[in-house]
Amino acid sequence: MRIFTVATTLTLMACAEFAGCAKDDERLPQAVTTAVAREFNQGDALRAAANYTVDAQILPPRNPIIEGRPAIAAFFQANIDKYISYGNETKWSAVKGDMAIEQGVYNVRNVRVGQDVETGKYIRIWRKNNGMWMLYRDMFSPDSVIGQAVLVTPEEATPGDTPPK
Known about the structure:
Layout: H1 2-19, H2 30-33, H3 35-41, H4 45-49, E1 52-59, E2 66-67, H5 69-79, E3 84-96, E4 99-110, E5 115-129, E6 132-142
Parallel strand pairs: 1-6
Antiparallel strand pairs: 1-2, 3-4, 4-5, 5-6
């Protein structure tokens, strides 16, 4: 199965880049590609994870593979913060049957200070499952070295907020 996934990915990439097979109607819809960010920003880790297949994997930099919806939901829950928002923009995508590949850029923003604290790029493999596009593999890479966890300082907090411990 791993060889099939790699072969399909390489075929889709070559097709999209060299042969121009990804016409406008053969690209992933924006509502699909931004669903995880939308659910994450609403603070719903379970709904964000529901966009992944049951056997999905997230391949984060410098960390072990995160596999399966429960682990993916836990990953999102550990990273959800009311002062942090996540956004992504698809740069290109290609669809071939029930498989698709997407490449794009992302940003993580501290909304209290209105500043991006991380930017990077990603590549995703999607599978169509019962007529719905779902993430099968999700790999991302920050543009710079990841420093420390993003925390809001007490000076940035709104009066009445409890600073993180």
